From TrEMBL:
<dbReference type="GO" id="GO:0097163">
    <property type="term" value="F:sulfur carrier activity"/>
</dbReference>
<keyword id="KW-0963">Cytoplasm</keyword>
<dbReference type="InterPro" id="IPR003787">
    <property type="entry name" value="Sulphur_relay_DsrE/F-like"/>
</dbReference>
<comment type="similarity">
    <text>Belongs to the DsrE/TusD family.</text>
</comment>
<dbReference type="GO" id="GO:1990228">
    <property type="term" value="C:sulfurtransferase complex"/>
</dbReference>
<dbReference type="InterPro" id="IPR017463">
    <property type="entry name" value="Sulphur_relay_TusD/DsrE"/>
</dbReference>
<dbReference type="InterPro" id="IPR027396">
    <property type="entry name" value="DsrEFH-like"/>
</dbReference>
<dbReference type="GO" id="GO:0016783">
    <property type="term" value="F:sulfurtransferase activity"/>
</dbReference>
<dbReference type="Pfam" id="PF02635">
    <property type="entry name" value="DsrE"/>
</dbReference>
<dbReference type="GO" id="GO:0002143">
    <property type="term" value="P:tRNA wobble position uridine thiolation"/>
</dbReference>
<protein>
    <submittedName>
        <fullName>DsrE family protein</fullName>
    </submittedName>
</protein>
<keyword id="KW-0808">Transferase</keyword>
Amino acid sequence: MSKFIIQVNGSVYGSTASFRALSFCQSALANGHQIINVFFYQDGVTNSNALTCPASDEIDMHSNWQSLSSEHSISLTNCVSAALRRGVLSPQDATENGKLQWNSSDAFTMGGLGELVVGIEQADRLISF
């Protein structure tokens, strides 16, 4: 059994990175491996935007990430710096920056590159999408 940390750099739309990362996670879990954390970086932070409204014939990546997290107790971590630059805010970030609203789901936590480094130290492999 291997332990993985997954880094998602691609956005929900305009890239297949998120879909490929989710598919990898599902396959790895089905084969008895462990996912320590999924770290969303660069445009990958858009996966946590609760306000995305995909068309009925599109895959709802946001909901799929939330389901993966709740079903397998996997932490979903946004790089806070990347998220703030892209307008993805948690309730705390909204308050700290004087914004009236936030759009990041509760399933996603904000963190820094330190969380990625800790995950890399605990994992057997880092897989980047």
